[in-house]
Amino acid sequence: MSPTGRGRALLTLAWNNRLARGYLCLVEFLACYALFEDVYLRADTMFYVVPTLLTAPTNFLFTVAFAWIPTDAPFYLGLALGALVNAIVLGALVRRRRPSAATPV
Fold first, then answer.
1. Measured distance between the N- and C-terminal CA atoms of the chain, rounded to whole angstroms
2. Average pLDDT over residues 91-105
3. How does DSSP assign 29-90, residue by residue?
4. Residue of 88, 91, 59 lying closest to 76 (CA atoms)
5. What is the pTM of this model?
């Protein structure tokens, strides 16, 4: 399998079922709201904790890996990549749990 085919297969796991797609949409909404609150409202409500907890533990790994960037970018990169990895895992679990058509009843 080519590297492009492997990447496409992983993205299919993350986007080809309702559970993973709903998870990605929820994390995207919460991260966008946290960014809006951070940039425009300048509120000190610490809403960014909610998307951080939704994408844990993988988000922490990516945030630490990108910590050399001196802005808020590592936080948002960690959220995006952590959510993608978690969605891939959810998609793989759903695919494994779903009975195949070749299995006799």
1. 32
2. 71
3. HHHHHHHHIIIII-----TTHHHHHHTTTHHHHHHHHTTTSSSSHHHHHHHHHHHHHHHHHH
4. 59
5. 0.79
Report the C-alpha dihedral over residues 91, 97, 101, 105, rounded to 10 degrees: -170
| pLDDT for residue 38 is more than 60 | yes
Question: Tokens standing for 7?
Answer: 């990447």
CA distance 84 to 76: 12
Query: In angstroms, rounded to a whole number, what is the distance separating the alpha carbons of residues 9 and 49?
Result: 31
CA angle 20, 21, 24 (to 5 degrees): 85
CA separation for the pair 32, 24 (Å, rounded): 12
